[in-house]
TrEMBL record:
Domain HTH cro/C1-type: start-end pairs: 20-71
Descriptive protein name: XRE family transcriptional regulator
Residues spanning the signal sequence: none
PROSITE patterns for the chain: HTH_CROC1
Species of the source: Ancylomarina longa
Annotated TM spans: none
Gene Ontology molecular-function annotations: DNA binding
Amino acid sequence: MYSLSTTPTEVSKALAERHKTLRKQLNLSQSEMAERSGVSLGSLKRFETTGKISLESLLKLAHLMSRLGDFENVFQLKEDQSGMESLFTSKD
């Protein structure tokens, strides 16, 4: 199937690559990251290789790297701005 938008697989692989880069910037080995985060080493290796990981484990890894706040906007409801238009239209 061809699509111009990104796929879930592409997003998960990109997340895994960014995670791996951040982990290395923090000078943490995979085993250190696993131990400190509470995520199994196997799960961490699978994530960095394939992008597959449970949400709970991903959040644990993000928390260890002080990036948990990055998830606060996921599924955030967008504000209804239809009323904003009335503020800028004149009633004259």
